[in-house]
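Exercise 7. Given the encoded structure of a 357-residue chain, write a plausible sequence.
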C-alpha cells in the first residue's frame, strides 16, 4: 500500500508499505533530514521531496534492520524507496506509524528478521497467493467455485455501513493525489471530504445492486468492499439497479458509459473491474449465511431477484480488461486492512471462465 493508505489505516493490522525515506523522526512533529542521530526510526512518504510531517509514516527500526536501514549508519538511504511490512499503529504517539517490522526491502533485496518466521500465509500484492488458495488449486467448475466460497467466506471481518465511508477513502485513493478518491464509472478524482448525498458529492455505489436479492445495507453483502465503490451521487442514481449490458445513450456525467431503461455499460477502463466484482459476489454469497444466493445469468430483467446479468457480457469484459495495478492494490488493501478476504478473480482471472464460462 501507499504511505497515505498506511496513514489512514492505523488499526493495528499488518500492512506492507512502499515509500521514500525522507528523514529520521525524533519527535511527533520533527524529522531530521541531515546530521542524523540514530538508527532506530525513519520517515516514509509517497514523494521523495515531501516536507510535511502529516504526510509521513514513522517506521520503527528494530535491531535486526538497524545496520542496513538506520540513517545514522546509512545516510545514503535518504530519498531512496523501500518496502516495509509491520504493524500499522501510531509511533511517536500520536503520529501515524509502522512498528515491529517483519521485513524491510530495498533495491529488490529482502532483509528478513532472523527471529521472525516468514509470513507466507499473508499474501501481498507482489507475492504468491498459493497458500491462501491452497484448497482451490487444481480444481475447476463447481468444485473450484465451492472451494473458493469456503476460502473467501472464512475469517471475514464485516464492516458497518458507516465504516464503509472511511474504508473507501483508502481502498479507492487516487494514486496521484492522496486527498482524493477515484470514482468508478466517471473516472473523476474527487476530494475525500465530498462524501455524502448532496449534488457534487460521491456516495457508495453497490455494483451488485442491493435490490437484487434485497440485502440492503446490512453488514455482509450490503457492506462488502469488494463490490462497493465511490461514485458521484447523480451518476449512481442514473445507474440505479440496472443490470449490465452494452449499448444505450451516453450517460450524463460519466463519459464512456452508456445506459438505457434496463442496463448499464461501464467505461472500457473498468469493464473488467465490474465483471470481477460481480463474479466475486456470486461466489461469496451462496445462501448459507442468512442472505440470498446471489448468482449471474444472461438477463437484464432481474429486478429484485437475486440475479444479475448479463453474464455473457461480463465474461467478455473480464477478458477484455484484465486486472490493473489499481485493482490489484485495492484487493490487497481490503485483505490486509479491512475484511481479510480476497477477490479470487483479481488474483486468478483465468478462474472466471472455469466457473462461469
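Solution.
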Amino acid at each position: 500500500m501507499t504511505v497515505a493508505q498506511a496513514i489512514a489505516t492505523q488499526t493495528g493490522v499488518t500492512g506492507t508499505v512502499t515509500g521514500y525515506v525522507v528523514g529520521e523522526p525524533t519527535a511527533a512533529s520533527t524529522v531530521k533530514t541531515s546530521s542524523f542521530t540514530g538508527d532506530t526510526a525513519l520517515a516514509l512518504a509517497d514523494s521523495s521531496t515531501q516536507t510535511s510531517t502529516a504526510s509521513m509514516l514513522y517506521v520503527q527500526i528494530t535491531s535486526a534492520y538497524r545496520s542496513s536501514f538506520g540513517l545514522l549508519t546509512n545516510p545514503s538511504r535518504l530519498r531512496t524507496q523501500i518496502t516495509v511490512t509491520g504493524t500499522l499503529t501510531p509511533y511517536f504517539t500520536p503520529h501515524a506509524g509502522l512498528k515491529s517490522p517483519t521485513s524491510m526491502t530495498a533495491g529488490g533485496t529482502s532483509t528478513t528478521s532472523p527471529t521472525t518466521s516468514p509470513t507466507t500465509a499473508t499474501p501481498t500484492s507482489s507475492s504468491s497467493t498459493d497458500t491462501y488458495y491452497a484448497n482451490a488449486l487444481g480444481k475447476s467448475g463447481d468444485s473450484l467455485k465451492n472451494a473458493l466460497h469456503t476460502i473467501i467466506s472464512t475469517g471475514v471481518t464485516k464492516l458497518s455501513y458507516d465504516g464503509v465511508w472511511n474504508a473507501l477513502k483508502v481502498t479507492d485513493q487516487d494514486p496521484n493525489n492522496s486527498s482524493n478518491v477515484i470514482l468508478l464509472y466517471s473516472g473523476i478524482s474527487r476530494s475525500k471530504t465530498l462524501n455524502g448525498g448532496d449534488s457534487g458529492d460521491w456516495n457508495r455505489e453497490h455494483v451488485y445492486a442491493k435490490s437484487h436479492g434485497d440485502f440492503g445495507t446490512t453488514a455482509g453483502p450490503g457492506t462488502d468492499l469488494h463490490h462497493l465503490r465511490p461514485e458521484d451521487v447523480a451518476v449512481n442514481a442514473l445507474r440505479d439497479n440496472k443490470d449490465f449490458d452494452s449499448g444505450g445513450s451516453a450517460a450524463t456525467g460519466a463519459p464512456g458509459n452508456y445506459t438505457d431503461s434496463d442496463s448499464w455499460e461501464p467505461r472500457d477502463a473498468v469493464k473488467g473491474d465490474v465483471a470481477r466484482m460481480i463474479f466475486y459476489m456470486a461466489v461469496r454469497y451462496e445462501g448459507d449465511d442468512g442472505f440470498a444466493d446471489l448468482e449471474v445469468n444472461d438477463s437484464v430483467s432481474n429486478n429484485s431477484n437475486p440475479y444479475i446479468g448479463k453474464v455473457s457480457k461480463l465474461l467478455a469484459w473480464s477478458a477484455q480488461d484484465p486486472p490493473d495495478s489499481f485493482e490489484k492494490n485495492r484487493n490487497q488493501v481490503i485483505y490486509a486492512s479491512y475484511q481479510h478476504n480476497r477477490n479470487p478473480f483479481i488474483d486468478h482471472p483465468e478462474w472466471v471462465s472455469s466457473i462461469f464460462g
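Remark. The chain has ten helices and 18 strands. Students should compare their own answers with the one above.
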